[in-house]
Design a protein that fits this description.
The chain has about 230 residues and is of the alpha/beta class. Helices cover about 35% and strands about 20% of the residues. It has a seven-stranded mixed sheet with strand order 5-4-3-6-7-11-8. Strands 1-2 form a two-stranded antiparallel ribbon. Strands 9-10 form a two-stranded antiparallel ribbon. Helix 4 links the parallel strand 4 and strand 5. The chain has six helices and eleven strands. It is globular, with a radius of gyration of 18 Å. It starts with a helix and ends in a 5-residue tail after the last helix. The chain has one domain: 3-Layer(aba) Sandwich (Rossmann fold), CATH 3.40.50.150.
Length: about 230
Amino acid sequence: MPVRFFKKAENNLCFQFWNCVDLFYDMRICGRSLVRYVPSVFRDDKAGVGSTGSQSTHYVILKRIFSNVHLSSDDAFLDIGCGKGRVLAFLVSQKCPCPLYGVELNEAVGKEAEKWASRYKQISIIIGDAFLLDYNKFTVLSLARPFLPKTFYNCVDLLESTLTHPITLIYWYDQQSGNYLKNRSGWELQTTETVERINGIKISSAYLRYSIWTFDPQKKESSCIGPE
């Protein structure tokens, strides 16, 4: 019992600490807090379909993830299921040189992102269905587990069937369905890391993992060509 008590107390203290850090950066970058969790507008856990709720990723995790990603002025970045826009806030604070887009299905949440993002010309918020976008307009995609597994699989199928140029895909909190990309034609894992603590402070009550992939449609096409 004492061990469980102290673990729970540590988790609560760390959770509050990181939320305070996030609030500081939110106010500096956005002029408002992006901490609040918002439930999904469509989620069916039994069927494994739909979207997850809007829960902003800690800035310290985003710094860790994007230290492995190079964004240039030739890129176009899209956060799929951007929620209130924490990923976009982090990137604009890092003086990212490329246009930044976010798509969000939940209109109320997307409106929150629009309000603060209007001060930054390089950020565009799209309120609507991510499955209706033309992904050939983007070169780097980010997903912070916006979909339940079957919907994620459908998203991957959409990318594979429509993309005409290579893309980079950043998948945070990928334990649930990230392995789906392993050994798929055209996909290549660039890096992956499991995170529990940063600077000695717990970031989560459980190990969390991110992975960064590239997809090249030409490699997928060539792998489908059999011997003559």
